[in-house]
UniProtKB/TrEMBL annotation:
Its EC number is 2.4.1.207. It comes from Papaver somniferum (Opium poppy). This is Xyloglucan endotransglucosylase/hydrolase. Residues 29-246 form the GH16 domain. It is found in: Secreted, Cell wall; Secreted, Extracellular space, Apoplast. GO terms for biological process: cell wall biogenesis; cell wall organization; xyloglucan metabolic process. Residues 262-310 are annotated as: Disordered. The keyword Hydrolase applies.
Amino acid sequence: MAAVLREKQLLFIGFFISFITVVLSARHHQQRKLYTPPTLKNLNDNFPRQTFDQAFSPYFGGSNLQVRDKGASVDISLNKYTGSGFISQNRYHYGFFSASIKFPAGDYSAGVVLAFYLSNQDVYPRSHDEIDFEFLGHAKRKPWNLQTNVYGNGSVKYHGREEKIRLWFDPTKQFHTYTIIWNSNHIVFLVDNIPIREVTYTKTISPAYPSKPMTLYSTIWDGSPWATDGGKYKVDYKLSPFVASFEKLQVEGCIWNNRTKSSLAPSPSPTMSPAQSPSPSPGTPSSAPLFSCTKSGGNGKTDSVEGEDVIRLSEEQRKAMAEIRKEYLTYSYCKDKNRFPVLPPECNSQ
């Protein structure tokens, strides 16, 4: 009897050791599957960098905006008094827009919204265009959310075309590059040179495709009512200031000539988001506008608006984008039938 019991104990121990081995092996395999970005042609190498004073001006926030390293970098921060931000000195009609950004440090940034985006809401409040990177703060043990969005003519029938991506790295530890390409062929969002979303111009989406000159904005502000888990978690100002750092600023494209520094928007109230801020009065754009277009980048070969590198994605880029979206896409408006019982028409072609 004792021998039988001993045999059962040994069998149980053997089974338990095998189980632990399988679990540890699975965890090790999962760790090995961490995403390794492919090596793609670096589009940022095609265009020059600008210092802050060359291309930007303060938007709001006073001393919460700090220009450093002779204009090579800039910090914007949110505290209990105000957010902050900066704005391009020109409006652009198509182009290449990029910055390397390090997000606010810490394991709790709920309610904080960090944004890098193009908009003309100040000039066209009822029919504005917008192309957004929005980075939504996180509660403890949860990652930052990267949200992209596209508006055209106020988005006509459908208000917003959001998608969310879970980042495959910690954006608070070091700088990562975020890029918007916008031209008559497509809009592309890139992270560290990898496309994560493409909006292709088609007849179907044309009424909602951004088509009017826009200004580039970089802002940080309190989005507590909606930003983190639908507003469940708010900004904790005991942890402020929340500081975001920008460097390697690049803005290249067709410049709208009917734009001067004096027409920049006034600073919004500290309690307002940028979307609620007072509108400037730059005048109504001419019905027959003139453009001053950048026809080459820093290497003298790449057209920022119509060059081969920016008007279409390569096969390698498409493959990388498909891999990212398969593993890290967490929300797409084209899959949200609760929000859109009848999906926007472009979703039928995806």
